[in-house]
Specification:
The chain has ten helices and six strands. It is an alpha+beta fold. It has one domain (about 15-280): Glutaredoxin (3-Layer(aba) Sandwich), CATH 3.40.30. The longest helix has 21 residues, at about 255-275. The model is unreliable at about 1-10 (pLDDT under 50).
Amino acid sequence: MATDKIPSSTSSGAIVLYDIGHKPPEAESCFSPNPWKSRFALNFKGLPYSTTWVGMLDISKVRRGLGEPACRKFADGTEFFTLPMIQDTATGATVGDSFDIAVYLQRTYPDSGAGDLFPAQPLDYTYVQSSAIKIPLSTPADGGFPEYARFNANVDAAFSMHTPLMVGGMPFDPATVEETKAEFVRRAGLSSWDDFTLTREAREGLTESFRAALGDLAKLFLENTDGPFLLGQQPSYADLIVGAWLRMSQMTLPKSEWEEVRRWHGGVFGQLHDALDTYAEVK
């Protein structure tokens, strides 16, 4: 966390959310899951904020300019600069990891909005990441709410391992599409964009793997028949974590495949996605 001077262009008392700008208009094409976690959390807490869109190629420059180091590393140890960040003009703080942002919002504004982001609950979900592919997941700097931190890491791993299903539907800015694709290739450790292409058979296999990976997660939602949230009618940050990945899935999967995901495991993910529309406004 850094507390550098806040640029004068931001309005007093408001929070600035830095999100990845994809295809214009950015507010209609934002699909990155970690910024969605923070947007959901800000809306949940009912806090005034605005969004600053940052092109993927400018992320490292913007983070460094705000005094925020990379919060992830690639398998070779190099830094992975990504978003979201928030800049709170009321306190002068910047926070640069989605989980740490949620913790910051809860601790700084405990009584705001819809209540507690981190109510006590069991979050027994584990996804074993393949040893063949290592996804650069973030490590939260804050030591609070370890049950939620573990849940966040496992949900991230489960969805990240299946993002090849979504790559082809990512909306890119035509002005920078080639540079952006090259950055995705570099991050994935591949040789070309064509390496993301899945044969029909491979896609079917990965889709089945995706469905199976979400099976144990769905069981948590099915435990409380009052749904659609893990705690029934009370949303928590755990619901927002899953909901953020569902936003990406909805934006990037072919429509027919997204409709399949909505129906999987008794329709719990479609119900969750729709219920979180309450907190999905892009400001």
